[in-house]
């Protein structure tokens, strides 16, 4: 959603909080405001979106006039007015903020993101602190539906906010290092003292930090290079890039080094196997060193170990995939669950309204299933349900159809496309015949079973998708009453809402 407000039209706030000058100074010193997107920040916002299942995630920085967006998921705007924003509250109070329904909160009900698109309801935000302890921005998640954020979700946000904060701290140290390097070059008198100070700072940073001139000779290295190359920082000085990296790595990295000397910043990742056989991941940056005229005199090297972040990302993605499957799939049959069925029903109805593409519905209910459970036990009953799920999955036409278990022995197939009563009856007949041929083993011999069917076709005159569901539901009741193991086409909803409706938490359009 575009928000056209620009910073020159946003009023400067009066009576800013105490200590705001120091906070703003630290914020500007980071050189992050109005900077281009960075993948390291974007990875975290994507992880938050998937982990918390929210449509909007932001990394924001708050200056005296505005809330500027460094990284975003689900929103196009790059800045918003500071006054009345969620993130301003987090920064000013320097603490986490959770809002269940912003429309009911007098502090935020008038916010443009709440009153207008995307109509934010729930918010969870954590402050991002500098090394000096000042809150300069937030990592925040927003949902368009009211919700409570649980302890587990808050813990996840806290960990991911910590990753963003670590990146900010690394940026502070890198900025400080660059400043010290330039100061050392400008003042020959203070060069030795500044070099020692810079060395102490760089040696305490858990990353490879170096400086290479236009001849690709090392002019600075921190102590982390000792473990990498076996050379002390003093021994690194004057050595060529090729000598330090070795032929193989030099062939891969020298094009990036030459690009940095042309003034093109480089960012890349590498994977390596350590002597113990463990995979290690690093992220490298080659940052051009420009003077006031724009001339490049060399480039800074910053290589950090991102193994933990990479592994955490992989673990989160696996966990999210598992959670997604569990939240959308019936565990016993492997079919879609009724929540997915309901969402797809609403989707095909909207598509019919927008494009005219039709849809149809087949409901089926196993006949006398309770007798199978009572006579043979629930384990055999579960095998029957699983077998029915396999039959339905095998009869789907592809992505145009969705088979679901609605609960108990009740199943449904949602079919996209234009159907007639005859073509829908033919499809249901194939499924019925396959179910009638299917058996499952039991201690008392093979168990066979039948099912009753109710079918219906979506009509453009329906008020919502439950119109077709109601017709198919009534037809299913008629099939049961007429002797079971048969197919009935639904034309009316005279019976009104049924127990099947109530169990799914919906009402027919006639109720």
Model description:
The chain has 511 residues and is α+β, with helices and mostly antiparallel strands. It folds into 3 domains: 7-171, Beta-Lactamase (2-Layer Sandwich); 206-306, PAS domain (Beta-Lactamase), CATH 3.30.450; 329-503, 2-Layer Sandwich (Alpha-Beta Plaits). The chain is built from 17 helices and 18 strands. The strands form 4 sheets. It has a 6-stranded antiparallel sheet, sandwiched between helices. Helix 2 (39-52) runs antiparallel to helix 5, helix 13 crosses helix 14 (378-395) and helix 14 (378-395) crosses helix 15 (421-437).
Short summary:
The protein has 17 helices and 18 strands. The chain is of the alpha+beta class and 511 residues long.
Please specify the SSE layout and strand pairing.
Blueprint: H1 20-29, H2 39-52, E1 56-62, E2 66-73, E3 79-81, H3 86-93, E4 97-99, H4 112-115, E5 122-129, E6 135-143, H5 151-186, H6 191-203, E7 207-213, E8 218-221, H7 224-229, H8 233-236, H9 241-245, H10 247-261, E9 266-273, E10 279-290, E11 296-305, H11 307-328, H12 338-355, E12 359-366, H13 369-376, H14 378-395, E13 401-407, E14 410-416, H15 421-437, E15 439-440, E16 447-448, E17 451-457, H16 466-481, E18 487-489, H17 499-503
Parallel strand pairs: 17-18
Antiparallel strand pairs: 1-2, 1-6, 2-3, 4-5, 5-6, 7-8, 7-11, 9-10, 10-11, 12-14, 12-17, 13-14, 15-16
Helix pairs in contact: 2-5, 5-6, 13-14, 14-15
């Amino acid at each position: 959603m575009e928000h056209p407000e620009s910073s020159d039209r946003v009023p400067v706030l009066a009576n800013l909080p105490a200590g705001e000058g120091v906070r703003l100074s630290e914020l500007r010193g980071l050189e992050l405001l109005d900077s281009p997107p960075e993948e390291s920040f974007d990875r975290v916002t994507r992880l938050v979106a998937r982990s918390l299942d929210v449509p909007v995630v932001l990394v924001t920085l708050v200056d005296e006039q505005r809330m500027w967006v460094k990284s975003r998921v689900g929103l196009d705007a790059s800045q918003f007015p500071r006054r009345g924003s969620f993130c301003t509250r987090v920064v000013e109070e320097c603490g986490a903020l959770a809002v269940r329904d912003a429309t009911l909160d007098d502090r935020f009900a008038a916010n443009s993101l709440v009153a207008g698109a995307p109509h934010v309801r729930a918010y969870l935000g954590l402050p991002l602190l500098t090394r000096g302890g000042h809150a300069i921005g937030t990592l925040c998640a927003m949902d368009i539906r009211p919700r409570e954020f649980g302890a587990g979700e808050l813990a996840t946000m806290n960990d991911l906010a910590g990753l963003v904060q670590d990146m900010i701290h690394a940026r502070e140290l890198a900025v400080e290092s660059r400043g010290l390097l330039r100061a050392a070059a400008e003042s020959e008198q203070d060069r030795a003292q500044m070099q020692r100070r810079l060395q102490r700072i760089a040696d305490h940073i858990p990353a490879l930090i170096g400086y290479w001139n236009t001849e690709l000779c090392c002019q600075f290295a921190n102590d982390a290079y000792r473990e990498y190359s076996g050379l002390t920082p003093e021994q690194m000085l004057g050595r060529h890039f090729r000598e330090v990296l070795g032929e193989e790595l030099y062939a891969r990295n020298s094009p990036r080094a030459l690009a940095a000397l042309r003034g093109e910043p480089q960012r890349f990742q590498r994977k390596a196997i350590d002597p113990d056989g463990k995979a290690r991941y690093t992220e490298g940056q080659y940052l051009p060193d420009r003077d006031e005229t724009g001339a490049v005199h060399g480039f800074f090297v910053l290589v950090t170990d991102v193994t933990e972040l990479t592994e955490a990302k992989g673990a989160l993605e696996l966990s999210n995939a598992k959670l997604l499957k569990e939240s959308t799939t019936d565990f016993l049959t492997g079919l879609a669950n009724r929540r997915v069925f309901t969402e797809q029903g609403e989707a095909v109805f909207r598509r019919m309204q927008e494009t005219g593409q039709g849809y149809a519905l087949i409901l089926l209910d196993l006949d006398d299933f309770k007798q199978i459970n009572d006579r043979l036990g629930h384990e055999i009953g579960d095998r029957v349900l699983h077998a029915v799920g396999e039959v339905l999955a095998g009869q789907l036409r592809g992505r145009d159809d969705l088979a679901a278990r609605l609960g108990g022995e009740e199943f449904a197939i949602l079919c996209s496309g234009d159907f007639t009563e005859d073509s829908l009856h033919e499809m249901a007949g194939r499924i019925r015949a396959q179910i009638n041929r299917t058996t499952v083993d039991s201690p008392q011999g093979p168990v066979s079973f039948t099912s009753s069917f109710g079918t219906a076709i979506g009509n453009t005159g329906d008020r919502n998708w439950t119109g077709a569901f109601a017709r198919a539901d009534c037809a299913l009741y008629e099939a049961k009453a007429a002797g079971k193991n048969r197919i009935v086409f639904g034309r009316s909803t005279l019976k009104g809402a049924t127990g099947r409706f109530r169990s799914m938490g919906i009402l027919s359009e006639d109720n």
